Amino acid sequence: MNESGRGTLLRELRRSRITQATVAVALVYLLLGIAGPWFAPHDPLEIVSTPRQPPSAEHWMGTDEIGRDTYSRVLVGARVAITVGFLAIGIGLLVGGAIGVVAGFYGSVVDTVAMRLMDILLAFPGLLLALAVVTFLGTGLVNTMIAIGIGGIPGYARLVRGEVLTLRDRDHVTAARAIGASDLRLMMRHILPLTLSSVLVYSTAQLARAILSEAGLSFLGLGVQPPMPSWGAMIASGQRSFLSAPAMGVFPGLAIMGFVFTLNLLGDSLRDAWDPHRYTRS
Questions:
Q1: What's the pTM?
Q2: Structural domains counted in the chain
Q3: I need a labelling partner for 71 at 20 to 30 A (CA). Which of 39, 110, 197, 209 fits?
Q4: Statement: residue 279 has pLDDT above 60
Q5: What b/e sequence results for 77-106 when a residue is b if at least 16 CB atoms lie within 10 Å of its CB, and e otherwise?
Q6: The domain spanning residue 9 has which CATH number?
């Protein structure tokens, strides 16, 4: 990110209390994702009380179907969601970004073949593609990350390709090519850094999508496997006991809703901060 990008982002933080609140909430979620187990009052795998207790002073979110503390499991579930989300978008970014920059830079047959392959992946709905990959690879945390990451590859490829197409003929790229810069140097030094703002904005939406996909797969029993806490699996358990113990499903559902809502607001704030026309209009 260049100095101008950092300056406009800091200006947005100073101008908007909504942006400040959004960043603060996002940081809280990230903190819970890193240190959630240390904040948890109980071992999330330990039976600490009778099953399906309502929220109380001892168990703030009640207990689950076998007597584990729901609050502790929601906190630890944040780590699972964030880990899956970040690693999944990392896979999508690395693979999709590499495809996009090569396709956009070289164009011609390379671009045509790469984009048609991406179109094939885009023909499958994201969750359906993840289901197919998990069915092929098997369930579990690592396979869930891979499945969701594969679904994110086409979006990153098309985004980076579009950015590269507009940047490859810029004056600074032409000047670097004229003095003998290699293709790799042109892509890594003179083109890719200028795509960072668009990639970061897109990644906030992709992180939200990855968290929802992980929750969906775990809800269906194909994602993170018990006894590891997962918000999606907790909602599935809560659905079966909704009438007798609604807290089991409501609190993990609120955790997902809050995080996804925060990420969407954060993406909007970043987009506004890096809009090159915003401050000329105001």
A1: 0.86
A2: 1
A3: 209
A4: no
A5: bbbbbbbbbbbbbebbbebbbebbbbbbbe
A6: 1.10.3720.10
